[in-house]
Amino acid sequence: MKKSDILILGLALFAMFFGAGNLIFPPAIGNLAGTDYLLAMVGFFITGIGMPILGIIAVIKAGGSIKDFGKHVGEKFSIVFGLIIALILGPFMGVPRTGATTFEMGIQPIFPEIPAWSIIVIFFVLTWLFSIKQSSIIDIIGKWMTPILVTLLVFIVGLGIVKGIGTPISSNHEAFKIGFTGGYQTMDLFVAIMLGSIILKTLKDKGYHQSKFLGITWRAGIIAAIGLGLIYGGLLILGANGQSFLQGIDSRSLMTVTIVQAILGNIGSILLGICVSFACLTTSIGITAAASEFFDQITPKFIKYNIIVTLSIIVSGLMAMGGVEFIVSVAGPLLTMIYPLGIVLVFLNIAGDFIKHKKAFKWTVIATSLVSIPQGIGELGLFTDAISKSLELLPLNTLGLPWVVPAVIGFCVANIYYESRTSKKKVQPQY
Question: What is the C-alpha to C-alpha distance for residues 232 and 48, in angstroms, rounded to an integer?
Fold first, then answer.
């Protein structure tokens, strides 16, 4: 295997997971965690960086597609799970967030008088045009703007840490839980599940044998993880250090902008805003096209791709009108329900060769959902007291992991049950 191929794949994974919209979460998490920011960082790195990398590995081991990823649970589950992921990444959360972030980080700080709806309309008209038929213009923008944005962020983070913008304040929040569940909002595990087939195809096109896939992907994943860790970790530290002047700011977008202004002044926030805006546009186009192609595969033939793109853009625009905080508040409960299922399936698929009874996949997912779904319902404000009291009885709840022990129990019980059935068949007398 060529080192250059590993480096290129590592950079590709980094670009796949690095979304400009994700920049609003690390500073907010650091701001909440305060002096316990390292605990929060560990939690965020697990779900925001580690799980997406493992997700690619899991998809490759499963066979390379969303359907393969959930096949041991059931065909219908795979289709529904894939549909939910496409809707989350596409018109209901991921894409709208790029539009709202573009306005709040890219336009509003520079032109505060411009109404949000006008920018969002322009943003999604451009997304529609390039999603229907991409041209070389958007490819050029993507190739230039992401490296520029990364370079600017590394400079800002480095200068902010060296310069010093303040010191963290003690916090009463559960830092690890904040970071762990905050990593859900990156949605990058879903990106890995949706786009894992692209990595598989890339390796095949380069002529590598299947036996080399995992080794190459592991090494490339480490490169991507280092890059993401430096940026996300640096922003999280800045969020913790900037607590003194971030007090009273509820908007995650405004937190990031305020930190940049404290380090580089208005010029810094303008440069960041321009880069973020173009990076968000390329992300919006890519996700809209990918999600629409998935919808095109599972919908009746008479519903054309162009119609699907148009409907997706309309829904995305309407969601974006609510702003970043609205989108995050809507996404939170749903991600709490679904993300644990993705995490469980990642580990099951990675360990798939050692799992004798594949039906254990199904029962592990069911056991996980029996906790994660009520947990998400509680975050919606429904049956909050009853659900909270029930979750408090479960181990690891304070870490945001109440579903882990039920998942392990479901897996073990399923294996014991199916093993006992196999043993009984073997000892049945023969006549």
Answer: 9
Residue 127 has pLDDT above 80, yes or no: yes
Q: At what angle do helices 51-62 and 3-17 cross, to 10 degrees?
A: 110
Question: At residue 96, what is the residue type?
Answer: P
Question: What are the DSSP calls for 378-413, one per residue?
Answer: HHTTSSHHHHHHHHHTSTTGGGT-TTHHHHHHHHHH
Q: How far apart are the C-alpha atoms of 412 and 26, rounded to whole Å?
A: 36
Tokens for 334, please give them. Answer: 């749903």
With contact defined as beta carbons under 8 Å apart, do 78 and 69 qualify? yes
pLDDT in tens, 386-427: 999 999 999 999 999 999 999 999 999 999 999 888 777 666
Tokens linked to 63: 């066979």
Question: Over the stretch 342-351, which tens digit does the pLDDT of each residue have?
Answer: 999 999 999 9
Nearest to 324 by CA among 414, 255, 420, 241: 255
113 burial level (CB within 10 Å; 0-12, 13-18, 19+): exposed
Single out the residue of 323, 296, 260, 272 nearest to residue 100, CA to CA. 323
| Reduced 3-state DSSP string for 63-81 | CCCHHHHCCCCCHHHHHHH
Residue written as token pair 């390292």: 38
* Residue 240 token pair: 């913790």
312-315 long-range Cβ contacts below 8 angstroms, 24+ apart: 312/90, 312/91, 312/95, 312/288, 313/91, 313/124, 313/127, 313/128, 313/131, 313/288, 315/91, 315/92, 315/96
Nearest-CA neighbor of 153 among 233, 47, 58?
233
Rounded CA separation 386/402 (Å) = 15
> CA 70 to CA 172: how far, in whole Å?
39
Cβ neighbours of residue 58 under 8 Å, at least 6 residues apart?
Answer: 69, 192, 196, 345, 346, 347, 349, 350
- Kindly state the tokens that stand for 94: 């991921």
What is the rounded CA–CA span in Å between residue 225 and residue 197?
19
Provide the 8-state DSSP code for 72.
Answer: T
Q: Which residue has the tokens 């991921």?
A: 94
* 156's tokens: 């800002």
Between CA 292 and CA 377 the distance in angstroms is 28
What SS3 state is found at 303?
Answer: coil
What is the helix (H) or strand (E) element at residue 104, kind and residue range? none
Cα 156 to its chain centre, rounded Å, is 23
Give the Cα separation of 276 and 145 in Å (integer).
8
Which phi and psi angles does 381 have, rounded to 5°? 95, 10
